[in-house]
C-alpha cells in the first residue's frame, strides 16, 4: 500500500507517517524506483502496534525502544494493551457518570454527596513519574512529591496560577526570537519558579536545558504546553537552551 492509502486506512496523516519513517519508528519495507514508500502487511501490523501504544500516551521514543527490544513479544503486548485500555475505559466511564450526575444536580434534579462529586478521579498514579525518575533520579522526584504533597489546596492553586501566568507571558512572546532580552527575562522567571522551592528540587542549568528538550521530544508535554499557544513548546526549548548557555 502507498502512504496515502495507509493514511486513509489508519486515520493518521501522511505527514505523521513520513515522520515515523524519518525517526526510524516505522520505515516501509519497500520503496519504488520513483521513491514512493510501499507498506507491507507487516508494516501495517507495526503501525497498529504503534497506535495502541499511543492510546496509552507513550512517547514515540519509548515506543521505538520497546519495538526494537529483542525480547518484545507482540502477543504479550496486545494482551497488556487490552488490560490497560479496559482499565482506562472503566475510569472514563466513572468520570462520565460523575459528570452526568453533576449536570443533573446543576438542573436541580438530584443532590450529590461530597463523595459522589469526586468519584472516578484518581491522580495518585502519575504517568510521568517513572520517566522523571529515570531522567533525574529518585531523589529529585521524591523531593518534589514530598513538597507537593505537603501543600494545601489553596497553595496548590496558587502554584498552578503562577505557572500559568508565566506560560501565558511566554506564549505571547513565542513568535519572536527566543534569545531576545524580553524572552530571556520570561525564561528566567520560569527557571526561578522551578528553583524557588515550589517543587522541592533544584534544576541545574543542564537539567533545565534537558527539560526544555523534553517539552519537544515528548508529545504529551508538547500537547499540554501548546494549549497556551501553538509552538510554545519549541519556543521554550530554544529559550531554555539559550538561557543555559548564557548562564553557564
From TrEMBL:
From the record, what ranges are coiled-coil? 89-116
Q: What domain of life does the UniProt record list for this protein's source?
A: Bacteria
Key words, A-Z: Activator, Coiled coil, DNA-binding, Transcription, Transcription regulation
Single annotated GO MF: DNA binding
The yes or no answer to whether the keyword Ubl conjugation is present is no
For this protein, the record's Pfam families field holds:
MerR_1 (PF13411), TipAS (PF07739)
Any idea where the HTH merR-type domain is? 1-69
* PANTHER family for this protein: HTH-TYPE TRANSCRIPTIONAL ACTIVATOR MTA (PTHR30204:SF90), REDOX-CYCLING DRUG-SENSING TRANSCRIPTIONAL ACTIVATOR SOXR (PTHR30204)
Q: What is this protein called?
A: MerR family transcriptional regulator
Organism, per UniProt? Paenibacillus antri
Amino acid at each position: 500500500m502507498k502512504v496515502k492509502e495507509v493514511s486513509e486506512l489508519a486515520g493518521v496523516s501522511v505527514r505523521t507517517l513520513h515522520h515515523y519513517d524519518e525517526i526510524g519508528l516505522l520505515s516501509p519495507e519497500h520503496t519504488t524506483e520513483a521513491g514512493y514508500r510501499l507498506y507491507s502487511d507487516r508494516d501495517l501490523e507495526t503501525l497498529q502496534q504503534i497506535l495502541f501504544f499511543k492510546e496509552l500516551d507513550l512517547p514515540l521514543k519509548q515506543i521505538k525502544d520497546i519495538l526494537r527490544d529483542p525480547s518484545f513479544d507482540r502477543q504479550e503486548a496486545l494482551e497488556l494493551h487490552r488490560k490497560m485500555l479496559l482499565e482506562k475505559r472503566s475510569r472514563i466511564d466513572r468520570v462520565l457518570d460523575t459528570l452526568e450526575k453533576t449536570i443533573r444536580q446543576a438542573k436541580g434534579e438530584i443532590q450529590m454527596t461530597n463523595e459522589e462529586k469526586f468519584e472516578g478521579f484518581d491522580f495518585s498514579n502519575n504517568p510521568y513519574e517513572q520517566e522523571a525518575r529515570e531522567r533525574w533520579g529518585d531523589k529529585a522526584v521524591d523531593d518534589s512529591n514530598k513538597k507537593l504533597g505537603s501543600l494545601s489546596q489553596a497553595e496548590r492553586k496558587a502554584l498552578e496560577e503562577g505557572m500559568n501566568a508565566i506560560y501565558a507571558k511566554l506564549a505571547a512572546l513565542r513568535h519572536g526570537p527566543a534569545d531576545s532580552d524580553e524572552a530571556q527575562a520570561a525564561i528566567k522567571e520560569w527557571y526561578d519558579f522551578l528553583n524557588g522551592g515550589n517543587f522541592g528540587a533544584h534544576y541545574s542549568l543542564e537539567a533545565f536545558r534537558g527539560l526544555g528538550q523534553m517539552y519537544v521530544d515528548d508529545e504529551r508535554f508538547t500537547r499540554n504546553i501548546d494549549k497556551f499557544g501553538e509552538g510554545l513548546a519549541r519556543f521554550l526549548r530554544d529559550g531554555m537552551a539559550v538561557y543555559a548557555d548564557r548562564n553557564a
